[in-house]
Structures are given as C-alpha cells and as structure tokens.
Design brief:
This protein has 1 helix and 8 strands; from the N terminus they run αββββββββ. By secondary structure, the protein is mainly β. The chain has a domain of 89 residues: Sandwich (Jelly Rolls). A hairpin with a 2-residue loop joins strand 4 and strand 5. The N and C termini lie far apart (67 Å).
Length: 149
C-alpha cells in the first residue's frame, strides 16, 4: 500500500518537470509573455492621444514616438489618488509602469489602458516613476489627478 501511495505522489512531480519554458534563456521578462502564453503579434496602429478627453489636472504626459528607449524614469510630486493612462504599439510584450514600489503592467497588444488608483488619505509626496517597454516599442503614459467629486 505504501508503494502505491508513493507512486501516486511522484506522478505530479514528474509531470511538473516535463514542462518547458518558451522564450529562450536570453529573452527578458519584458520581451516575452508569461509562462504558458504566446506573445500576440505587434500592434501597428498609431499611438493613442492620451491627453484627449482627460478630466482633471494632467500631472505628467510623456511620449516616446520613436521607439528608441526601453526604459525611462522621472520624479513627480503627486498624491496617492490618480489615474494612469498608457499605450504601447509596434512591439509585442508587456509595458510596465512602476510608481515607487507599485508595479502596473500593460500588455502592448490590448490597446490603450487606464488604471485609477485611489487611496485615502491622498498623501502628497515626490514619487519615482519608471517605465519599461519591449525593444522597439513606441509608447506613451499620462498621469492625471481626477477632479474632486
């Protein structure tokens, strides 16, 4: 009976070892899809104008329309309640925006995305904004302060 139980316990371990990871050992995490997913084809539409239709105050608007940089950073005095809009084209993979220690990923092939962050109290501080994109990606981010309701 013990041998039968040991054999049943070993089967999932052996099955887990047979899984292969695609993307090669030289691909970075920003250049490949998460394990088990296939990267969709690169989007070739123009970047969306993120500033159009913004309600509230624009705190930061940055566009890399050339696709030359895979990383960018700045510091910004902002609160903990904001709206982040982002877009990424002409590359497949994930665009990641880091605001201090918060990681906000966006799949480039899904079109423009919006994330609204609201924390009470809204504490004003200088925050580090970092953007990482796949090689060759054209991208844009916009951070705005929503109007008071």
């Amino acid at each position: 009976m013990r041998i039968f139980i040991a054999a049943i316990a070993a089967i999932p371990l052996l099955a887990g070892c047979a899984v292969s990871i695609s993307g090669g050992e030289h691909a970075s995490s920003s250049e490949r899809a998460p394990h088990g997913l296939i990267d969709p084809p690169a989007v070739t539409r123009p970047l969306t104008d993120l500033a159009r239709g913004v309600k509230g105050k624009v705190l930061l608007h940055h566009v890399d329309g050339e696709g030359q940089n895979t990383g960018w950073s700045t510091k910004l005095k902002m609160g903990t309640s904001f709206r982040l809009s982002m877009d990424c084209v002409e590359a497949s993979g994930v665009m990641t925006v880091l605001i201090d220690q918060s990681r906000l990923p966006h799949q480039c092939s899904t079109g423009p995305g919006n994330i609204r962050v609201g924390m009470i109290p809204d504490e004003l501080a200088v925050r580090t904004i970092k953007v990482k994109v796949p090689k060759g990606a054209k991208w844009a981010i916009l951070i705005s302060k929503p109007p008071q309701s």
